[in-house]
Amino acid sequence: MLDFLTQKVHDENRQGEAYAPFAVDENQYKKHFYIESYGCQMNFADSEIVASILQEQGFGATRNLEQADLIFINTCSIREKAEQTVRKRLTDFKKAKKSNPGLLIGVLGCMAERLKAKFLEEEKLVDIVVGPDAYRSLPALIEEAETGQKAVNVLLSREETYADIAPVRLDSNGVSAFVSIMRGCNNMCSFCVVPFTRGRERSRDAASIVAECETLYREGYKEVTLLGQNVDSYHYFDESIGEAVTFAHLLEKVAMIAPDLRVRFSTSHPKDITEEVLQTMARYENICKYIHLPVQSGSSRVLQLMNRTYTREWYMAKVDRIREVLPDCGISSDIIAGFCTETDEDHQDTLSIMEYSKYDMSYMFFYSERPGTLAARRYTDDVPLETKKQRLSEIVALQGRLSRESNEKDLGKTFKVLVEGPSKKNPDEWMGRNSQNKVIVFPKPTGLKKGDYLEVTVTDCTQATLIGNVKREK
Ligand code: 5AD
Ligand code: SF4
To answer: CATH code at 458?
Structure first.
C-alpha cells in the first residue's frame, strides 16, 4: 500500500513509471524495437539516446510488443522493489519468444552490471546486457546476439556523455523535453548505488547542450529540463573560449536561447547549489522557480551516516536563503524513512524539517539496502520493516498536509501556465504547469494549443492539483 502511494506521487512527475514509446511511423521501418524504462528521469533520457542509436540501424520504435524484433528494458536498481518489477517483466517478455523465436530481449541501464550473469546464464532471461555507458556498442551487440551468442558490455567510462547523439524523443508531449547535461555521480551518499551503477561524474560539452536546446526550441518545444544526478557540480572547460562553464553559466546560456523557452533542472544537492545559481534564477523569468532539494533525513546524526556532508541547520539555512532570493520558489524533496540506526527522535527530526521547509511535494521511500553501497558494507540495516513502513506512512501523511496547505495558499492567485495538453481525467479540461512546477487544470478555451502560455487564476485545489479558470491569453 505504501509503495503504491509512493509510486503515485512519483507518477505525477514522470519518475518511476514505465512507458512504451510512441512510434513516429510504425510502418516506416522493417524492424522494430520496443523499450520500457524504469527509475529516474535520467533513465528515460538514456532510452531516447538508445532509440537514436537503434534508429540509425534501421529499427523504428513501436509500442506494440507483438511488432517488436527487439525488446529492451531500461532498468533501475535504486531500490529492491524496482529489481523485482524488472524480473517480472522479463519473464513476461520471454513468453513472447514462443511465438517469435527471432525476438531478442535486452537489459539496459543500472541493473546490467550486477545482474548480468544471473539474467544471461543462470536464468536465461535475456540475450543482450548493456550498461549505461556502453550504448554505442548496441549495434555490434545486436549482431552478436543474432548469431546466438550472449552479448554483454557493462563497462563504465570516464568520458562518455553521448554529447553528439541527438536523442529521438519518445512518448513526448512535444512541449517539454529532458536534456542530459552530465552523467554519473561522485558523491557517495552511503545508501546510494548510483555511483557504482553509473560511474564517475562527467559533464557534457556545454556547446552541445545549448545546441540541443536550440534545436528543441526550433522544433516547437517550450520547456527543457537539464538533467544530472547532481547538476550543481556541472563543470566543463570550453577550449574554444578558454573558459570554465559552471552550472550557473550553463543555465544562463540556455535561458538566453529564447524568453519563451522555460528552463528547469534536476537534481540539486543541497551542499552544491550556489548563490550564483540562485541569482541566475532570479534574473531570468524563464528559469522556473522550482528546486528539487533532497533532504533525505532531518537528523544531523543520520545525515552524517548517510554521508550527505551537511547538517540539519545547514540545510535549513539553505532553504531560508532560497526563500530570501526567490520568495515564490517551489521546493520539493526526497526523503528516506528508516535508514540504519534511525531512532524515533531522528524520525521526528525528519518530520520537523519537512514542516520547516514546507515542501510542495516529496518523493518518499523507506530505506532499502543495496549491495555494494557504503551503508551495506558499514552499517546494519537494523530498523524493522514494520517501523520503516510506519514512519514512511507518517511522512506521506505529513507531506499530504503540506502539499494541500501549499496549494491552498495559491487560491485566488494568477499564474502563467505552459499548456501541456488535455488532462488525463477529463478531456474537456486541459492541464499545464506553473513556474513552480505545480499542475493546473482548467476548462479548455477554444483554439488553445499545446505549448501556448496562458494566465490561469486558481479557484480551487486538491492535494495534488490546482484547479483554475483562464484569465487571458498571453
Ligand atoms: N533506499 C531508499 N531510497 C533510496 N534512494 C536512493 N537510494 C535509496 C535506498 N537505498 C532515494 C533517495 C534519492 C532518490 C533518487 O532515491 O531519496 O534521492
Ligand atoms: Fe546517489 Fe547521492 Fe549521487 Fe544522488 S547525490 S545519485 S543520492 S550518491
So the answer is: 2.40.50.140
Question: How many angstroms separate the alpha carbon of residue 191 from the centre of ligand 1?
Answer: 7
Q: Which atom of ligand 1 is nearest to the CA of 267?
A: 18
| Closest C-alpha to ligand 1, atom 18 | 334
CB 11 within 8 A of CB 48: no
Q: Whose CA is nearest to atom 16 of ligand 1?
A: 78
375 and 340 in one domain?
A: yes
- The residues lining ligand 1, judged by C-beta closer than 6 Å to any ligand atom, are 78-79, 191-192, 294, 296, 334, 336, 365, 367-368, 370
Q: Are 454 and 470 in contact (CB under 8 A)?
A: yes
Which ligand has the nearest atom to the CA of 227? 2
The C-alpha cell that represents 255 in the structure block: 535561458
User: Which ligand 2 atom sits nearest the alpha carbon of residue 229?
Assistant: 6
Tell me how far apart the alpha carbons of residues 181 and 179 are, in angstroms, rounded to a whole number: 6
Q: What is the pLDDT of residues 173-199, one digit of tens each?
A: 999 999 999 999 999 999 999 999 999
Report the separation in Å between the CA atom of 203 and the middle of ligand 2, taken as the mean of its atom positions: 16
Q: Does the residue 344 lie in any domain? A: yes
CA angle 457, 354, 192 (to 5 degrees): 115
Residue 283 lies in a domain: yes
436-460 per-position pLDDT tens digit: 999 999 999 989 999 999 999 999 9
Q: Is the pTM of this model over 0.85?
A: yes
Q: Are residues 201 and 235 in the same domain?
A: yes
Q: Where a domain ends, among 358, 392, 409?
A: 409
DSSP string over 374-438: HHHHHS---S-HHHHHHHHHHHHHHHHHHHHHHHHHTTT-EEEEEEEEE-SS-TTEEEEE-TT--
